[in-house]
Each structure stands twice: as C-alpha cells, then as structure tokens.
C-alpha cells in the first residue's frame, strides 16, 4: 500500500512552504508539544495565563516576528508569522492571543505609526518580552462600531489628558504599556500609555467561560496625562487602529487551523482505541463521514491562509480577503471542535481532552477582531458596492 497521506495535511500544503517557513513551524510546534500542552488544560481549568512561558516565546523570536531585525525582532515573512499563530493556537487560543496582541496590535502600531525614537525605545524590549503591551480600542458600549468612540484625549500644554474606558482588553493586567486610541480635535489618534501612569486602572474580567488561559481586562482612564512624545505621530483617523486589526486578523485566519487540527488529531486517536459494539469507533461510517468532512474543511482553511500569506508578502493583501479567511476559518474550527466534542462523548466535556477547551475558546475568536456577521457584510460590500452595516 502506498504511503498514507498526513491526515492533518491532506493536500501536502507543507510542501508549498520554504525551508525557513518549515523550520519556523517545526520550532514552534516543538515548543507547543513540550512546554504548552502538558500544562494548558490545568491553566484553562484554573483560569490562569501561563506567564512563565513568556521568556520562551520571546527567545524563539515569536514577538513582533515580522518586524525588522534592527529593532531586535526576527524579520520573518507573513507566512512564517501565520504558522507561528497556527502552532500556538494548536496549544491554546489564549497563548496565540497573547502573542497576537503583543505583535500585531502593540508592536506593529509603534513600528508603522511611531517615530524612530519610539521604535528604538520600545520594540527591542517588547521583542524580548520585557515590556508587555495591550491594545485599547473596544469600548464597553459596543465593539463592532469603533467610530462611535467615547474615550477622548484633550491637549493641555505639551501634554494630552485622556478620559474614558476600554473593554475586553487582552493582556490588560499584565501589560506595562497600553496602545490607546482616543478621539481628539484632529480625529482618532493613538497614544502609548504606561500602565503605571496616575489615573490608569486595569480591572481583570473574571467568570469567563472562554479564553480562560488568557488575561482579559477593562481599562479606565481618569485624567491620565501623557506627554506629546507618547503620541503615535504618523497616523490619524480610524485607519490607524483598523490597520492594526488587519494585521491581527491575518494571524487569526491561521490560528484556528491549529485548534481544528488539534481536535481532529485527538479524535483520530480516540476513535481507533474506543471499542463500541465489538469494533473501534473509527470503523463506524457516521464517524468516518464526520472526520472526512473535518479534513475537507481544514484543507480549505489551510489553502485560504497560505494564499492570503503569499498575497500579504507580495504587498497585495486586501482587508476583504482577510475578512473572508477569518470568517471561513473561525467557522470551520468552531464547528470541528464541537463535532469532536460530540464524538468524544462524555469524555469530551473535561479538559483532559482539548475539544471542549478549543470549542469554548473559539466562541471568543469567532467574535473578536470582527464578528462573523461583520466579516460577511464586508465581503457583501465588496461584491455589491453597497454598505449594509
């Protein structure tokens, strides 16, 4: 019999990667297998973010991975960053969220919109994991309409005074700086706010049933004063934060592939060993049909994200293309995680298996960085030229 295909990569998408991209995937994959998977179920159960992994994540060059080496970063391409997200989320969405926020939502705006002094001051420390960032855009009254921003910054001499609140902020209570977007007389602008600034408060969100191995916070700004040197000078308007979100969403198209692969791998192993009615569960037609459909959807997601990455690296990626992949791949992963939980039966409801953890995490991933509905409407607008928001 000919060699079997890799059940998690039926189209041999790995063969389309460069040697360097494969090396990145293998390196992060080993880290996830050796350091993340042994502890992450307990972290999720305890509602604890594994901060002890930050030095390892930093030493592997996974923070700000695509930013040039002159700023202490790895200078990788977009596909490599995608593979990092895929492998980290194979471990847990919370760990990928940490790296995604640090890289795409905090380091990227400093790199893209900051001045040279800001870049040299912050980026090397952030790449080393010495300074953790959080991204303050979403507000308590609604996330899908960022233009309706209530947080404002007013000029006072050479300083800015910020008042307002942000909600659902990953890393909020472990961050040393916050990238805060606020309304000004010149439109929305971004500010680097040290979290020890007087008037800044972060309050951790508890009782979560999703992303339990991640820090989620509310941020409050009560006359928080920062110098003009902390303003990101090279962007004004919503295109600033939206540009960051496009970077982050790109990584999120890859992440759920890893979660889906983890669930399928677990079910493939489980159904070989679980004997029902005198034969392995894997010999059941209904189970094979379900797993075949999972493999089909994972393959589609892999090809979508790889082509998206190639477009990104060629400078041709459009936000609508990111929306299509984020919508498809998050929907794929959450459906697969739920189906795997079902196949696992009663065993599937404990964190001894990964399916329920991934399913619950993906409830957040399918919502944040643009809900499924918003991304569907983005694609619809592209098709018709009519904005239905």
Automatic annotation (TrEMBL):
Domain named Acyl-CoA dehydrogenase/oxidase N-terminal is located at 18-130
Domain Acyl-CoA oxidase/dehydrogenase middle, first and last residues per copy: 134-224
EC number of this enzyme? 1.3.8.6
Name its pathway.
Amino-acid metabolism; tryptophan metabolism; Amino-acid metabolism; lysine degradation
Q: Could you tell me what reaction this enzyme catalyses? A: glutaryl-CoA + oxidized [electron-transfer flavoprotein] + 2 H(+) = (2E)-butenoyl-CoA + reduced [electron-transfer flavoprotein] + CO2
Domain of life of the source? Bacteria
**Keyword match ATP-binding:** no
Cofactor(s) this protein cannot do without: FAD
The record, for Gene3D superfamilies, names: Acyl-CoA dehydrogenase/oxidase, N-terminal domain, Butyryl-CoA Dehydrogenase, subunit A, domain 2, Butyryl-CoA Dehydrogenase, subunit A, domain 3
UniProt KW keywords: FAD, Flavoprotein, Oxidoreductase, Transit peptide
Acyl-CoA dehydrogenase/oxidase C-terminal domain residues: 237-383
The family database entries (Pfam families) matched by this protein are listed as:
Acyl-CoA_dh_1, Acyl-CoA_dh_M, Acyl-CoA_dh_N
PROSITE patterns under this entry?
A: ACYL_COA_DH_2 (PS00073)
Task: Please give the family membership noted in the entry.
Answer: Belongs to the acyl-CoA dehydrogenase family.
PANTHER family for this protein: GLUTARYL-COA DEHYDROGENASE, MITOCHONDRIAL
The name this protein goes by in its record: glutaryl-CoA dehydrogenase (ETF)
Organism (species): Dyella caseinilytica
Q: What is the lineage of its organism?
A: Bacteria, Pseudomonadati, Pseudomonadota, Gammaproteobacteria, Lysobacterales
């Amino acid at each position: 019999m000919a060699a079997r295909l890799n059940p998690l990569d039926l189209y041999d998408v790995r063969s389309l990667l460069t040697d360097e991209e494969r090396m990145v995937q293998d390196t992060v994959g080993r880290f996830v297998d050796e350091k993340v998977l042994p502890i992450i179920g307990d972290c999720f159960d305890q509602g604890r973010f594994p901060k002890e992994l930050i030095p390892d994540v930093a030493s592997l060059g996974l923070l700000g991975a695509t930013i040039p080496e002159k700023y202490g970063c790895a200078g990788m391409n977009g596909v490599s960053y995608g593979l990092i997200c895929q492998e980290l989320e194979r471990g847990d969405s919370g760990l990928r969220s940490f790296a995604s926020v640090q890289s795409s939502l905090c380091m990227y705006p400093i790199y893209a919109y900051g001045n040279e002094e800001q870049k040299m001051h912050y980026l090397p420390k952030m790449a080393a994991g010495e300074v953790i960032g959080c991204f303050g855009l979403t507000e308590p009254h609604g996330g899908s309409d960022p233009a309706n921003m209530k947080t404002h910054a007013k000029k006072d001499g050479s300083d800015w005074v910020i008042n307002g609140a942000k909600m659902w902020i990953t890393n909020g209570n472990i961050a040393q700086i916050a990238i805060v977007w606020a309304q000004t007389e010149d439109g929305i602008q971004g500010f680097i706010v040290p979290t020890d600034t007087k008037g800044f408060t972060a309050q951790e969100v508890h009782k979560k049933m999703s992303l339990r191995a991640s820090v989620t916070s509310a941020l409050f700004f009560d006359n928080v004063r920062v110098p003009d040197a902390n303003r990101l000078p090279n962007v004004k308007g919503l295109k600033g934060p939206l540009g960051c979100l496009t970077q982050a969403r790109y990584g999120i198209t890859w992440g759920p592939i890893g979660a889906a692969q983890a669930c399928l791998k677990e079910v493939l192993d489980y159904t070989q060993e679980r004997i029902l009615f005198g034969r392995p569960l894997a010999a059941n037609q209904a189970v094979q049909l379900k797993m075949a459909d999972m493999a089909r959807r994972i393959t589609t997601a892999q090809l979508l994200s790889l082509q998206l990455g190639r477009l990104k690296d060629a400078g041709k990626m459009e936000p609508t293309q990111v929306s299509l992949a984020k919508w498809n791949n998050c929907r794929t992963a959450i459906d697969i995680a739920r189906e795997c939980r079902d196949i696992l039966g009663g065993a599937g409801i404990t964190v001894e298996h990964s399916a329920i953890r991934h399913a619950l995490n993906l409830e957040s991933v399918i919502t944040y960085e643009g809900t499924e509905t918003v991304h569907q409407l983005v694609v619809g607008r592209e098709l018709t030229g009519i904005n239905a928001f």
